[in-house]
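Observation: inputs received (chain + pyridoxal-5'-phosphate).
Thought: call the complex predictor directly.
Action: predict_structure
Action Input:
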Amino acid sequence: MGATEQAYANEAFSTNWVSTVGPNLNAFEDAMFRRIGIPAVCLASGTAAIHLGLRLLGAGAGDEVFCSTLTFAASANPIRYEGAIPVFLDSDRGTWNMDPGLLAKALRKRSKQNRLPKAVIVVHLYGQCADMDPILDICGEFGVPVLEDAAEALGATYKGRAAGTMGAVSVFSFNGNKIITTSGGGMLVSANREMVDKARFWATQSRDAGIAYEHSELGFNYRMSNVLAGIGRGQLEVLDLRVEQRRAVAFRYRDAFADLPGITFMPQAAYGYSTNWLSCFLIDPAAFGCTRDELIEHLNQADIESRPVWKPMHLQPYYSDCEAIGGEVAADLFARGICLPSSSSLSRSDQEYVIDRVRGAAMETASAA
Ligand SMILES: Cc1ncc(COP(=O)(O)O)c(C=O)c1O
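Observation:
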């Protein structure tokens, strides 16, 4: 957080615009429009944005919705909010994102069976864009809309296009752990302004025009607060710096481990510019000397928090009854993947400490063998 964020938030206090209406909301949405070139609506969370996005795409009870399996649960949960049916798709080993070839095969098969999904939720994992051209081509061929879950990818690009501008509807998250934050919050964006306006209407309880509290549609309390939008305005001004900081952290780890066997950096697709939201590596236990879980425990002993890569949705107890198309790649990435401390505020000396401990884990096990 910086002085600008504070100034915009203070403005909300001093002018008493502390609710879900006010100048910061408009200004934050306008600033996002200037940044990515399409209309935006500020919402209470990225999850709320996915929920309204699915409603905009007409996904309802009994409809199937395809979704990347390797992601955080918030990508998929809104499918269930609407009574729709998630179908999880495996990752491509080269990007860790939804496998476009697998998607194409699945859509062709579904088309023959006359049961195409209502939408496809494509996640840009850890800030790296999925390979959108083949995904958009095949979805376009069958008229299936794409919802881009760019929660982790604000600031990323795909072949020069901004993450979040390629799907029919896209979402960003400003959760506390994201590239930029409003403490909690999200945005829905779309080139279709009517959709964005509709989401804003639903997010403010679908109150019809006029002074009476009249409602012709189901509503939600999903709007962002004007105070938090002030924080978001300030944060958006430093987005590029934050992305550079995240990338610098990730590439410092990559370089520091280049000579270590059995630890491999998440592949960086040549088509895009990743935010490297989290610095992720794969551990090959035989070559590295210990398993991913042993490494996590070793780091934990040194007071360093690290985490496994997301547990795929098709392996979640809650989604155990859902269909998975493939899943072995995501399961392997989960079994061997680790996310190291990646904050844009991670100091050089703290990162050196993490690097030393990771190298220590490899050396210790090598000398014990
Ligand atoms: C891929 C992904 N989708 C959706 C979300 C949900 O965003 P929020 O926490 O703002 O609801 C998150 C993060 O929390 C995420 O990482």
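Thought: report the result.
Final Answer: The domain at 240-368 is CATH 3.90.1150.10 (Aspartate Aminotransferase, domain 1). The first helix runs from residue 3 to 15.
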